[in-house]
Amino acid sequence: MNPKEIKSKKVFIEGAVSPQFIADSIAKHNTKTSIGAHQIFLGQIRSDEISGKKVRAIEFSAYTEMAEEEYYNIREEIFAKYDLICMHVYHSLGRINAGEINLFVFVSSVHRKDCTDACREMVELIKTRLPVFGKEIFEDEEYGWKVNR
Asked: With left for phi above 0 and alpha for psi between -120 and 50, is residue 49 left, alpha or beta?
């Protein structure tokens, strides 16, 4: 895949990542017979209790252009470090309810070690370097800014 094709793919999607989207993404890889391992990370919204209030949803926003540029920098770092065949990342924007998926990281390689290590590192770098913000919305519709735990 050439760099222009990579940059044309969008990381951010509106709304939750659906189970059907995840299943379809996996199914598309069954023709890639050089792949020996897949590693998938799914970030799901928890119904945490904070100061006696339950989280009902998280509303995600981002500096999209800046975040996508940083994503491509991270992606290049990961591909330079690990022997990967492909990697797909989707992060939700908008209101995502408790129980729904907001982050889908799907990494494929010839061998499992590169795949597992690359996926773990990718998730950590997304959490620490992308300008994505989450507003926790409580059952009473009050809100507070999410702090990564």
From this structure: beta
CATH of the domain at 45: 3.90.1170.40
- pLDDT (tens digit per residue) in 79-90: 999 999 999 999
Half-sphere exposure in the Cβ direction for 139 (13 Å, CA) = 8
pLDDT, one tens digit per residue, over 93-113 is: 999 999 999 999 999 999 999
Domain assignment present for residue 111? The answer is yes
Question: Could you give the number of structural domains in the chain?
Answer: 1
Would you list the DSSP string of 15-63? Answer: SPBPHHHHHHHHHTTTT-TT--EEEEEEEE----EETTEEEEEEEEEE-
Would 54 be classed as within a structural domain?
Answer: yes
